[in-house]
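Researcher: Quick sanity check before group meeting.
Model: Go ahead. Protein one:
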Amino acid sequence: MLSKLIKYEFRAMAKTFFYLYIALVAITLVNVFTNPLGALMQTGGGGQGAAGGHGPEIFAEAIKGLAFALYIVLILAVAFVSVVLVVRRFYTNLLGDQGYLTLTLPAGREQHMAAKLIVGVVWNTISAVLIGLTILLQVSVMGNKNYIIEFFGAVDPLNIFLGILLAIVGTASFFLMTYAAMAIGPNLVKNHRLGGSILAFVIIVVIYQILSSLFMAGGLMWNISNPFRPDMGSEALTNSIGSSLMVVSIAMYAVTGVICWFLTRFMLRKKLNLA
C-alpha cells in the first residue's frame, strides 16, 4: 500500500512541478543565450555600451535584465512551491475535510506519513538540484568556470557528501517538524487551527535551536581543544571543524525528526482533530 500511496502523491504534485521546472529551464536558456548576445552587440557597436544610446545595445540590456529578473522570480517560486505544496497536501489530506476519506483507506497513519514525507523530500531534492545546475550553467557561461573548478577542488569530498546528507536529513526533519506542529496546533489553540499550528511550530523550532546551539558549541570546542587531534594546517583544520559541525547537525536533525515522527503519529492516533 505504501508504494501506491507514494505513486499517488507523485502524480498529485507532478503537474505543478513539471510546469515550474519547464519555465525555470526555459528562462535559464534565455539567460544563457542573451548574455553572449549582449556582448556581441556591444562589440558590434564599436565598443560603446548601452549608455551610448544605441538601440540594439539598449534592447539587449533590457532583455538580459528582464530575463534575469524572471529567473530570480522562478527560483523563488520553485523553492516556495516545493515547501508549501508538500505541507499543504499533508494538512488537506490528513487534517482537513479530506481526512475523513483518507483515513478510511486500508493504510495505516504511518504509511500516509511516510508516503508524504518521502515524496516531499524527493521533490525538494529535485528542485534543489535543478536550481543548482541552472546557477552553475549561468556562472560558467559568464566566464567563471575556473572559479567553479577551484571551489569544488578546494572542498573536502567528505564535506561535500556530508553537505548533501545534511540537506536531505534537514529537509526531512523540517517537514516532520511541520507535520507535528500541524497535528498539535488544533489541540493547542481551540478554534484557531492556523494560529495553534504556528505557535506549535515556533515552540518546536525554539527548542531545537537551543539544543542544537548547545551541542554545536560543545562539538566545536571539543574539535578545537581535542588533545588527540594530530597537528594539521589551517585548511585541514577548517575542513575538520566543518565536518564535525555537519555531523552534529545531521545527528540533531535526525533525532528531532524521529521525535516529531512519533509525536505526529501519536497525535493522529489519539488526538486527531479534523477540520
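Researcher: Fine. The other one?
Model: Protein two, sequence then structure:
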Amino acid sequence: MIGLMDELDSALRRISVTRSAWRWWKNIAVRDGRGSATWQFLGALAEFVRESTPERRRQRYGDAEYDWEHRVNTTSAAVGWRDRLLGVFHSPYQPTESALFHEMIAALSDQKGFDFGAFTFIDLGSGKGRTLLMASDYPFRRIVGVELLPALHRVAWGNLGKYRSEAQKCFAIEAICGDATDFAFPVEPTVLFLFNPFLESGLRRVIANLDRSLREQPRVVYVLYHNPLLEHELGGCSAMKKNLGTNQYALYVAGEIPDLKNYGSIS
C-alpha cells in the first residue's frame, strides 16, 4: 500500500499545472490564433474562480445519492483545487448519473446479438471509478478504467475495495493510472465508454489509436459516448458507424456481431 501511494504521489508531481496550461493554450492558439487562445485562457481561469466559491461547491454535492447508497466517494464536490485546475486543461471531473448510465447500457444490450460476457468494458477518464462500479452490475467479461490524475485514481482504487452491492455481477475490475491517450486497446470485443474525457486533440489521438488497432486486428467495438460534444472526431475511425444517438449520448459500433463466435464468456 505504501509503495502504491508513493508511486502515485510521484506521478502527480510529474503532471504539472504549468505544462498542462501551456499545452492547452498552444493547441487553441494553433487553431484559433494567439489572441483568441489568451482570451479563452483568461475566461477559463475566471470560470474556475467562480466554480470555487462555497455556493458552487455545495451544488456539486447534488449527485451524492449514489455515494450514500453504496458508501463510496465519487462526487465531484470533494475534488481538491489542484485537480480541479488540472481538469480545466485536460477534462473536468464529473461522475455519470446512475439513471442515465443504466439507460445507455439498456440501449447497448438491445443491439442485435449483444452478449455482455463476450465484452470488456473500458472507461477512459475513469475519475473516481463510479462508472466502473455501475458497470459491474452487468456480467461483462472484465472492466478496465484509465485515469490520468493520481489523486482521483487513488480514490477510485479505494472505492473498488469498499464497494458492495447485491447487484454486482462482474468482479474482474482493474483501475489504471496513466495517460488514456496512450492506452493500448486490448485485442478483444470492447465497449468503450467516454464521458467527454478529452480536449479535441486528445480525443483525436485516442480515435486514431483505436482506428489503427481495428485495422490491425478487426473485431467488434462499441463506443458509448456520453455528452458527445466532440462527436465529429469519431469520424476519424473509418470502421465506426453510428447506431443511435440522443441529446445526451451516442452509440457507435465497428465490426460485425457474428465475429463474437470466436470469444467465450469468462465464468
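Researcher: One line on it for the slide.
Model: The beta strands are 120-124, 142-147, 173-177, 190-195, 221-226, 241-245, 249-254.
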